[in-house]
Amino acid sequence: WGERRCGEGSAAGKRGKGGKISHSIVEPDGPLCNCGKRGGLEAVSSARAIARDAAGKRRAGEAPILHRLANGVVDMLNAKLVFEAARQGDAACLHIVHHAMRTLGVFIGGIINFLDLELIILEGGPSQTGPEFLGILEETAMASKMGLAGRGTRLLVSELGLDATAIGAAAMVVELRLDGDRLSGSPAGSP
Question: Which burial class, exposed, middle or buried, applies to 137 when counting CB atoms under 10 A from its CB (0-12, 13-18, 19+)?
Fold first, then answer.
């Protein structure tokens, strides 16, 4: 969800706050995000959003398969269980997962139109859904892009799994430190 990379550098912008694509608004009247805005991609399509929406359906008695999979324990609910309930035919969970994957797919289609990328690497909860739901995302992304933009663009799931963000953040810290050392003329790692 975190950052867009350009060549070998970050696209963090003038103040270092850019590249936060997960806070792009995809549903203006959508759910409230942790950033305080409504309808950001993270608030609509993240694993946390999927679990939140499913919890509401479960409380309303509309997700019986999900309820059974969680053994009736509220704290057991997570996106992984929602995806499994959807696989087993829970209509409410299917709706939630399809909505999240389609929303993410339309957003990715827009990114392809804007940047004409060769490769998009997915990470985070929704990327761990399995081929049946990733297919919805990819199909929607490709249908949402313009004709020639993104011709041959590939969508891959990160081999780093849910650790991708932490590993990327650590790599950025090292990169920033090395860049700072090069700019100041100090040897790498010196105080």
Answer: buried
Q: Are 78 and 93 in contact (CB under 8 A)?
A: no
* Total residue count of the chain as it appears in this document: 191
Rounded Cα distance between 62 and 54, Å, is: 9
**DSSP states along 123-168:** -SGGGGS-HHHHHHHHHHHHHHS-SSTTTT-EEEE-TTGGGHHHHH
By three-state DSSP, how is residue 38 classified?
Answer: strand
Q: Are the C-beta atoms of 93 and 86 separated by less than 8 Å?
A: yes
- Report the alpha-carbon distance of residue 178 to residue 184 in Å, rounded: 10
Residue 168's Cβ-count burial label (10 Å; 0-12, 13-18, 19+) is middle
pLDDT in tens, 108-127: 999 998 888 888 888 777 77
- Note the pLDDT tens digit of each residue in 31-85: 998 889 999 999 999 989 999 999 999 989 999 999 999 987 766 788 999 999 9
The H-assigned helical ranges of the chain are: 41-45, 47-59, 64-69, 79-87, 91-115, 131-144, 164-184
pTM of this structure: 0.77
Contact between 68 and 119 (Cβ < 8 Å) = no
For residues 94 and 86, the answer to whether their CB atoms sit within 8 Å is yes
What is the chain's alpha carbon radius of gyration, rounded to the nearest angstrom? 19
